[in-house]
Amino acid sequence: MMEKLLGLPVLASEEGKGVDGLIIYVHLLMGVLFVGWLAYFAYALWRFRRERHPRADHHGVRSHVSNYLELGVAGVEAALLIFIAIPLWARAVDKFPDAADSTVVQVVAQQFNWNFRYAGRDGALGQQAMRWVSETNVFGVDPADPAGKDDAQSLNELHVPVNKPVIAHISSKDVIHSFKISAMRVTQDAIPGMRIPIHFKPTKEGSYRIYCAQLCGNGHAAMAQGVLVVQSPEDYDKWLASKTVGTTSYE
């Protein structure tokens, strides 16, 4: 109900429930404060109108009610921070699922596309080094490493199976980008020279837009062509099996 009232995007991940809960609680607090202070403003206009107080009272307010109200608001904000926001953040950055039980993918942003790489049938990604990075080898995969021969790559289309954790290692080829999937409630800056992991567990099959949440150049809007495709495990396995991709092919 509250999600529809606030106009939140469709939720398709397990971790997103906590994010939506925090958003709802903060909006409820802001709603209560808005109504409360508006009511107090109206009361003050009536209570201290000129007809009732023709002469100013230089002693000012003697009641401490406003102080107690401010302390109460600060207490609610502290509770939201300590009991909801911090645990939510801790789960996002510290409680990673086991890589063996997850879909592990590398994400490299560039002006103005998203590059994705997955381990093939052997379950191992090929070795990488900066000296092998080129226009046709975005991930810098060692062409002599047998483990990289069956690695799959895709352009602007990220495929994952439903109800299985996803670990994505985010980086950038050129400038700072920001990997954002609203339906998964995940956002992470893509920074050149760094590989930053994030995780989420998709719970609904479908296609979800991938955005760049960082202004990255004149073609920034083109980054929205990225799509997350959440499939059944069977369909995902078929798609991955069809990708006989080395280090130079994209679809």
Description:
- The chain has 251 residues and is of the alpha+beta class.
- The protein has four helices and ten strands.
- It has helices at residues 2-6, 16-47, 65-93, 233-241, and strands at residues 103-110, 113-118, 152-155, 157-161, 166-172, 177-181, 186-190, 196-200, 206-212, 226-231.
- The strands form two sheets. It has a five-stranded mixed sheet with strand order 3-2-1-5-8, with no helix packed on it. The chain has a five-stranded mixed sheet with strand order 4-10-9-6-7.
- A hairpin with a 4-residue loop joins strand 6 and strand 7 (186-190).
Task: Provide the fold topology.
Blueprint: H1 2-6, H2 16-47, H3 65-93, E1 103-110, E2 113-118, E3 152-155, E4 157-161, E5 166-172, E6 177-181, E7 186-190, E8 196-200, E9 206-212, E10 226-231, H4 233-241
Parallel strand pairs: 1-5, 4-10
Antiparallel strand pairs: 1-2, 2-3, 5-8, 6-7, 6-9, 9-10
Strand-pairing-aware structural class: alpha+beta
Share of residues in strands: 15-25%
Mean pLDDT: 88
What separation lies between the terminal Cα atoms? 40 Å
What's the overall geometry?
A: elongated
Query: Percent helix among the residues?
Result: 25-40%
Low-confidence regions: 245-251
Number of strands: 10
Series of secondary-structure elements, N-terminal to C-terminal: HHHEEEEEEEEEEH
Rg measurement, Å: 25 Å
Strand ordering within the main sheet: 3-2-1-5-8
Query: Helical element count?
Result: 4
Major sheet characteristics = 5 strands, mixed
Features:
alpha+beta; 251 residues; 23% strand; five-stranded mixed sheet; disordered C terminus
